[in-house]
Amino acid sequence: MNYTKISIEEILKWLKNNLNEERYEHSIGTAEMARDLAAKYSQNEDRAYIAGLLHDCAKCLSTEKLLEIIDNEHLDVDSIEKMNYKTLHAPVSAFVAKTDFGVSDEEILSAIRWHTIGKLNMSDFEKIIYLADKIETRTREDEYANPIRECLSGPKGLDCAMLQSYKLTIKSLVDRNLKICPMTIDIYNHLEDLINVN
Question: Is residue 155 predicted with pLDDT exceeding 90?
């Protein structure tokens, strides 16, 4: 099944022309990791690969342009999320995936939309794209990624890896004296409950 209106080769060419070199490598790495995780957790590998390729397609737009698209297209982005310019590319990437690449699969679009901050009750597919972004091997540093990767080998692997990722994120925010989005705390607590349920 085709999940986009253009070929993988055309997508790669577009990404090459619209992302910087590191972001291009990261996108390919995320797609590769997403495909591997999809195979491990019985998800569709082609869908995961497409979501991985396109998850950062709006990453190299300016903050001003991202906010302009969010406002003009009435994207569902709340005021707290708008405070962190580093995550604004996620909703816009989902919008670009839909409008420019013809992606109509709602779970692919949702996985792209929530790959930065996450949300409560993510599907396994959404978790896979979230984690693939954090642990791909082309550009992510092992010091950060390995503790998350190691969680995948145990029971409740996806949820354990998600929890580890949130622990690292919250610690990083605290270390840098940055605000923590209330939803991040809610997701962390929810994952703790999932892991610790008997």
Answer: no
